[in-house]
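BUG: 3D viewer hangs when loading the predicted structure for this chain

Environment: internal workstation, default settings.
Expected: structure renders.
Actual: progress bar stalls at 90%.

Input used:
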Amino acid sequence: MSRPFAITVAALVTSISLSSCLARYHNLPAVNIGAAAPSKAYAKLYYHVDDQTRDKASVALAAAFKSKSPFQDAEAIEAPPSQGVFVDVSIKAVPEGHTAKVYRAISYATLTAIPCWSGRGGSDLLYEVYVDGRKMKNFDYQIRRKKVTWIVLLPVAWINLLSHTEAEAFDATALQFFDDADPLFRTAITSAP
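Structure tokens produced before the viewer hung:
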């Protein structure tokens, strides 16, 4: 067997065995997955999504502000303006526990022949609402991920295609925020000069 062929086979076996995991997001408003956007009842919203990684999930969250908010226009800016409604979103990654990380390293070293699992990782989202430059209220949401990795799960790894993605979880949280914050939006906009 030639060396390039052996390297290719080893890379293929490694990637297949490491994809033998099942992941599921929970503690999220699943009723909002794929839900329609609310009616555009308000004129303008300013927002900021504070996430340095700009991964798919945070990009989905920014897209939700643009297309699924109850505002006709949504503009990304850095800081609260002196006039209008502003929402600042902070995304904090919640790492897996130390024990899960150790077991995951052992599992990967054995090409997932030894199983590992975690139920603690995910993200905390903090939505801070400002009206006319003044902070009004915080809305906290927690998204958690349960994940199990084991070579035996490879035949059923397709189930991940039926599970919610992290981007869908962030999108659902944004829709829940728009619903939860609607009374505040209504009050702020009707009391504006």
